[in-house]
Structure formats: structure tokens, C-alpha cells
Amino acid sequence: MNPFPESDSDQETDGFDRIPDVLILLIFNQLSDIKTLTRCRAVSKRFNSLVPQAESLLVKVDCVISTETGEWFLLQIIKSILQSFQDLILPRKQILQPGIRSSPAEILRGFEKIRKLEIELPSGDLRLEKGTILRWKAEFGRTLKSCVILAVRSIEQVNENNTGDQNLLDGDLNGDEIDFHGDGSGGLKLRVVWTISALIAASARHYLLKEVIKEHREIESLILRDREGEGTVIMDDLGLREFREGEEEEEGGGGREAHVSTVGWKNRTTVPAVRMRMRHEARLDLSGGVRMKGATLVVVRPTEVERESGGTTKSEIEERKEDKCLALGGAFDGVFGEAVEALLKRRSYLLEMNSF
């Protein structure tokens, strides 16, 4: 026999009702995954009313649908998310009408107070030769603000006692120049192709975020990355405000969208004229017996930034400092971060590229 019988009021009260809304929202923000939060809405009327107030959201894309129809890349892949939502929200016999296009903004339309939004794609956009690894991180406002690109021809694990070709290693550490005529791994031309490919991928992803930014003016941080870690687009609060102000100016002017280019069927943000500092090492021996071959680091900055800052060209020392801040500012970690630190100590080569 229970010596402390529960009163009728205790039996009728749900334990969740005793948890304040603030604490539940804190839990929702930690969950962040939009699929999980959408399922939470079916738990109770209270959860259904609180989920749209979540401030931190993560959209994970499980699969990529073919883009042969000519629709936007991101709009296609997010349809896979909507299909799972359909089973939850609609009766099983009810089917969404075919031909309806759903945008990222439509998926997020029920959320009212988004502050931090992350979108994770299942894979990168680039198709590189076997063994090549490319990582990039781009920051945007209305257009490109900076981009750091790390490319490696191959990574291998070597025996610590096996020094390999010591002459080649010593020559590289003394600052061997990039072989502009081809170094057995494609030379300068290949590295420029890598750089352009990364910039096009970044600008295409930036353009696809346009609708979300316009409809959710409360967003203060926006990150778009892929699960494989190939590329990341970042927009902070300042960059988001700059983007919205630029859009308002274009809408007020009534003209065609500026800063927009088209490649085939896919629109992307135009890449401005840029200055690129490239560093290359034929071989890097890192901690743990890791060896990288054909490692290249490229730091990209728009030339317009220098003009706006006073019209004077920065010295190489100043640019080196900025390169270090951009490349080491959380862009890469682990073995890639170590490679970046090593490459920043190497000789750099300045390249310029017109807008495209």
C-alpha cells in the first residue's frame, strides 16, 4: 500500500506541463534538426505551438535528386525532406499534387524566429580526378568577401622511419617554385582550374540561399556545407544585412538582378574581380606519418575591397597577415589545418582574375 497516495490533481497533471516554455525551447534549439522538430509537433498541441519558435535549425539533406529536369539543385534535393514531412502531416491516402515546386523558404515558412540556420548537403559539387581532395570555405555578403581553398593531389600514410626521397623533401622546404610548365601533377593550369571550380561552386550555393534570406530577415547566421566537408558557405549578421540591402536597391531600381550569372541552367552569384595568393608544396610531411603530395593553398579576396579601403594596394606583409587570419580562422581542422599552417610559411604567388 502506498503511504503517500497521489491526489486527483497530481494524477491529472502531465509532467511535461510543469516544464517551462523557455526550457523546452532550449531543448528544441539543441535538437535543431528540422526533421526531428517537425515530428515533435505531432506530440502535443503545446509542442506544436512551440516548435515554430525554435531559433536554431539544421536542415540535413539525405539524398540528391537528379537535376536533369533543369530545376534548381537545392530545390530538388530539399524535395526529399518534404517527402518525409508529407507522411507525417498529411493522411496516408492524400498525395501532394504533382508539379508543385517547393523552395527552401517554403520549408522554413512555419518557423518564426530563426536566428541560426545550417543546411547540410549529402555531397560536394565538384567532380575531381581520383585521389584529389579539395576543401574550401567562402564568406559572402551581397557577393564574395573571401575564400580559402586547399587542394591536395594525394594523402598517404608513411612509415616514420622511411624518409623517402630526402633530396626532394629538402628542396621543397627551401621553397621550390611552382612549376608553371607542369610538375607531373598538372602545374599551375590545373591549380587555377581547381580555384575557379571552387569559386563557381561557392557562388552557386550562395545564390540558392537568396529566397531564404529575403523571407527570414531575423536570421543572423547562415551556414551551408556538405557532409563530406568539401565546401562551406558562411554568411554572418553583417553579410546578411549587406545582402538584403543590395536586394532592396535592385528591387527599387526595377532592373535585372545585378551580381547574377548563369551557367547552363543554373544561376549563381557573379564572382567579382579577385586577387589570389597561391602557395604550393610538392610534398608535405605532417605529424603522425601523414604525407601530402601536391598541396596548394589559395586565399582569394575581391579587388574592390582594396579600392574601398582607400585605393592603395596592401603590402605583401599585410596580405600575409590577412591570409593567416582567413586560413586559420576555423576554416580547416585536423590534418588539413596542419597543412595550412605549413603552407602559410611558403613563398606565395600573386594572381589576378577578372569577374566571371
UniProtKB/TrEMBL annotation:
Coiled-coil blocks: none
Domain of life assignment: Eukaryota
Annotated InterPro entries: AUF1-like (IPR044809), F-box-like_dom_sf (IPR036047), F-box_dom (IPR001810)
Gene3D superfamilies membership: 1.20.1280.50
Pfam families reported in the protein's UniProt record: F-box-like (PF12937)
Domain F-box span(s) in chain numbering: 13-61
PANTHER family linked: OS05G0510400 PROTEIN-RELATED (PTHR31215)
Protein name as annotated: F-box domain
